[in-house]
Amino acid sequence: MSTLGVIQFLVCCLIAIWLYPGGTMVDETTMGFSATGNYLSDLGRDVSFSGQDNRLGSAFFNWSLTILGFSILPFFFFMPTQAVDRFGWLIATGILGGLSALALVVMGLSPINLYPMQHILALLFWMFTLFWASIVHGMAMLTSKVNPTWLSLLSIFVSVIAIWYMYFGMQTAMAVWFEQEIPLQAALLQKFLVILSMIWILSFSIKMLLTTDFSEFYKRKDTETEQYVSDLEQQLRT
User: Which percentage of the chain shows pLDDT scores above 70?
Assistant: First the structure.
């Protein structure tokens, strides 16, 4: 489900980019979608910066973003199956990742030109939770003795790009606020972060599907919990 969600989002993004009429926040005369001038959120505008109709493209982007958020929830729910010796860390990763997925849903349901405050707050929340989810996940998998994997480095890379994007994003916000020249790095880094996070989810989703018996994992966890409760009750009786 997570894999299909990522794929449909990437495909719909490409369609929305192709349909985008043009215009950026600093230049309304540009044609088409600009990699350095437009943010992905601009694809969700029903009217582009150039004043042209973008309802079809915005529908592709907004609904695909909403579907993506819901579709990757199972990925984070089953996150603890990746390394039993880092169960607690991966539970934390799953919670943070689940919150980041819900933030994507909010962004998809609140286009930036119609609900700017909700969209921006959801974007900030997505970046914050994604940063912590990826860094905790990376540390958990790097230190796991049961299931170590070089893919953990991808998690660390996601966290690095996330914090980098947040830094340039703040610079962009300040530039807009004080009417200064807007840096180009944030728009480029946003696209890089989104693509990288999609690769991260795809890579670990496929790995989980190929190597994990989900029902057996949680059955074993339930059995361990029941045994613990039983032992505790026995101790209390004595």
Answer: 80
3-state secondary structure 153-188: HHHHHHHHHHHHHHHHHHHHHHHHHCCCCCCCHHHH
Residue 83, both tokens = 């390394």
pLDDT band at 232 (very low <50, low <70, confident <90, very high): very low
pLDDT digits (tens, 9 = 90+) for 58-93: 999 999 999 999 999 999 998 888 888 889 999 999
Amino acid at 213: D
Give the mean pLDDT of the chain: 83
Lookup result for tokens 């959120």: 41
CA distance 70 to 131: 19
Q: Which of 46, 51, 58 is nearest to 17 (CA)?
A: 58
Please state, in angstroms and rounded to a whole number, the distance separating the CA atoms of residues 87 and 80: 5
Which residues touch 192 (CB under 8 Å, ≥6 apart)?
161, 165
Tokens of 46: 């029903």
How many whole angstroms separate alpha carbon 36 and alpha carbon 19? 17
Is this model's pTM higher than 0.90 or not? no
Report helix, strand or coil for 53.
strand
Record the tokens describing residue 166, joined without a space: 């947040």
Q: How many helices (H) and strands (E) does the chain have?
A: 8, 0
Do the beta carbons of residue 68 and residue 6 sit within 8 Å? yes
Positive/negative CA dihedral, 27, 30, 35, 36: negative
